[in-house]
Amino acid sequence: MYRIHELTRGQSPDALAIVDHDGAHYSFGDVEAMADTMARMLKAAGVERGDRLMIVSENCATYAIAILASSRIGAWVMPVNARMSDDELDALRSHAGARFAIFTPEASVPSAAYADRLGATSRGTLPCGDVLVAGPLPGENTAPEPETGTPRDAVAALIYTTGTTSAPKGVMLTHGNLIWNAEISARLRGMAPGDLVVGVLPGTHIFGFASVFLASLAGGSAIRFLPRFSAPAILDAFTEGGSVMPAVPQMYQAILAELAKRGTPPDAPKLRYISSGGAPLDPEWKEKIEATFGLHLQNGYGLTETSPGVAGTRRDTPRDDTSCGQILDGVECIIDEPDDEGVGELLIRGPNIMKGYYRNPEATRAAIREDGFFRSGDFAKIDPDGTLWIMGRKKELIIRSGFNIYPPEVEAMLTRHPDVYQTAVVGRRVSGNEEVLAFVTAKPGVTEADLKAFLHEHLVPYKVPQHIFIIEQFPAAATGKILKHKLTETFAHLLDERDAAVAT
Predict the structure, then answer these.
(1) CA–CA distances in Å: residue 472 to residues 146, 230, 421, 422, 469
(2) b/e string for 102-131 if b means 16 or more Cβ within 10 A?
(3) How far apart are alpha carbons 283 and 112 in whole angstroms?
(4) Which in 63, 302, 324, 370 has the greatest CB count within 10 A?
């Protein structure tokens, strides 16, 4: 197998492959035929090998077919979330030098709006919808990239990082990267024909793109596409036969809240596997989720730059803790400059490592050492048995009065408070030091004093935040991941008010 579109080959053509956002069913044979037809449509429009083909979409069959069609052509698929602002989409399109863009108007109003803005036209109709294409688009550096090396070494996807802690970068992932991840993800979950994967994670994010959609193809499973997250829609998917549910912790929290509102247990007759990734997993929420569904909540760790798989818990040896499980077969992990407790930056090497950052050789050299190890930017430790623990982002480390404070530790303790829903902890520079700030969503009536008193019972004093802000909603990425770098900007008025009060 050399290209990601070949993941569909070998599957029974009559087996169910996709349940679309509108309920339409498509077999693997349907998917193969539509991908072939769309590839011919795109070639007729002028799309060439090495083009960056921008897919402005939300989850649907057209999105999936566009990925496979792009692979058939040899173009680089560039999935971007349609819910980004026009300025954000323009910036990514310009950086990538995308000559063509394809849209999913049937599943996404924002995608339709951006298509109108770029003057897209229909290149034909598939059973899943119009093939709406814009291009050739104006811009600099839009020439197709030459393909070198073996087919597996060729770039398959250009995925821009979410930028939760830094500016977005274009990650070049090869066909080999993505095929390896799809196959190992399918094996970890035991995905097979007859499974129905709940595809709610955005397919424009590496988690939804590689570890959900491509993994479902590798396992011969069907995927049910949900264009955007909705707790009621997820529960409906469970009722209708959903068997595998990969998600981020924030999604599970919303599902539990919906069940609490209904006052009923989940109706999930075929649900057999639930997993979490993309953000730290809180032990209290893990217990609640497992008790609600009667299943072990599996956990894992990965990054866009690692395709994304690095480590994961195993179905046959479930864990009661919130570790990331065992390092995946074929992947090497070491800890750089560990402290006395074995904590240091996690370095990763293996078939999962990206080709580099597009048009950013300096960032590539900074990220990938000469020996092939990728600098994750995460603090971690590895137990003697190979269990991986993520302690927090290197850039998020807070140093207060000479003490290291890892935000996930404080966040985990805050969420143990019975009145707290979600929390995020960040540092802020103050004169000669760094202070700890916490932002939480909580039940009505809880106060900052309540939360500080609770933390003082469970943490050493230097780890207790100087300020705790109770807010209504977090700034978040499409995956539900909290955008920590936007917290101080979003809630600057609260910080200003607190600073003024402290000053007086």
Answers:
(1) 49, 18, 11, 10, 10
(2) bbbbbbbebbbebbeebebeebeebebbbb
(3) 41
(4) 63
Task: Write the DSSP string, 124-160.
Answer: EEETTEEEEEE-SPP-SS-SPPPP-S-GGGSEEEEEE
Q: Are 315 and 244 in contact (CB under 8 A)?
A: no
Per-residue pLDDT of the chain (504 residues; tens, 9 = 90+): 799 999 999 899 999 999 999 999 999 999 999 999 999 999 999 999 999 999 999 999 999 999 999 999 999 999 999 988 888 899 899 999 999 999 999 999 999 999 999 999 999 999 999 999 999 999 999 999 999 889 999 999 999 985 444 457 999 999 999 999 999 999 999 999 999 999 999 999 999 999 999 999 999 999 999 999 999 999 999 999 999 999 988 789 889 999 999 999 999 999 999 999 877 787 888 999 999 999 999 999 999 999 999 999 999 998 999 999 999 999 999 999 998 889 999 999 999 999 999 999 999 999 999 999 999 999 899 999 999 999 877 778 787 866 778 888 899 899 989 999 999 999 998 876 789 999 999 999 999 999 999 999 988 888 899 999 999 999 987 777 788 888 988 999 999 998 888 877
CA–CA separation, 338 and 403 (whole Å):
16
Paired tokens of 203: 């397919």
C-alpha–C-alpha distance, residues 285 and 309, integer Å: 23
What superfamily does domain 322-394 belong to in CATH?
Answer: Luciferase; Domain 3 (2.30.38.10)
CATH 3.30.300.30 residue ranges of the chain are: 397-503
User: Which CATH number applies to 397-503?
Assistant: 3.30.300.30
CA dist list (Å): 461 to 212, 454, 497: 42, 12, 24
